[in-house]
Amino acid sequence: MAERHLIKAILGRFKRMPASERIEKVRKLAAESKGTKEFIRSEFPDLYKEAFNHRRPAAGGLSESARPRELSAKRH
Predict the structure, then answer these.
(1) Helix 2-15 vs helix 19-31: angle between axes, to the nearest 10 degrees?
(2) How far is the C-alpha of 49 from the C-alpha of 16, rounded, in Å?
(3) CA atoms of 27 and 29, how far apart (whole Å)
(4) What is the pLDDT of the chain when averaged over all its residues?
(5) 44 near 14, Cβ under 8 Å?
(6) Of all residues in the chain, what percent carry a pLDDT higher than 90?
(7) DSSP string spanning 27-75?
(8) What's the pTM?
(9) What are the pLDDT digits (tens) for 13-38?
(10) CA-based nearest residue to 28, from 46, 44, 40
(11) Number of Cβ atoms within 10 Å of the Cβ of 62
(12) Per-residue b/e over 14-44, b at no fewer than 16 CB within 10 Å?
């Protein structure tokens, strides 16, 4: 029970931080060791996703910046 209480308190503290600071701290903590990174991934999945998951276009898709170039090339 004490471990869950501690995890909840840590999560609350991180959620009150500005997003940029929170992401920076999670990345810094995860960089300390593989065990720490796995602990963050398992106990704080939302924080982990926020700090490490980047949206990527689907396979074969174009990035947002490439779409306008493609459209303008078709016009000419």
Answers:
(1) 130
(2) 17
(3) 5
(4) 82
(5) yes
(6) 61
(7) HHHHHS-HHHHHHHHHH-HHHHHHHH----PPTTPPPTTHHHHHHHHHH
(8) 0.64
(9) 999 999 999 999 999 999 999 999 99
(10) 40
(11) 12
(12) beeeeeeebbeebeebbeeeeeebeebeeeb
Structure-token match 């701290």, residue found? 25
Structure-token pair, residue 76: 């000419």
Distance CA 30, CA 52 (A): 10
Q: Do 61 and 70 touch, CB atoms closer than 8 A?
A: no
Q: Which two tokens stand for residue 24?
A: 């920076």
Half-sphere exposure of 52 (CA within 13 A, CB side): 16
User: CB atoms < 10 A from the CB of 7, how many?
Assistant: 13
Task: Quote the tokens at residue 32.
Answer: 């300390």
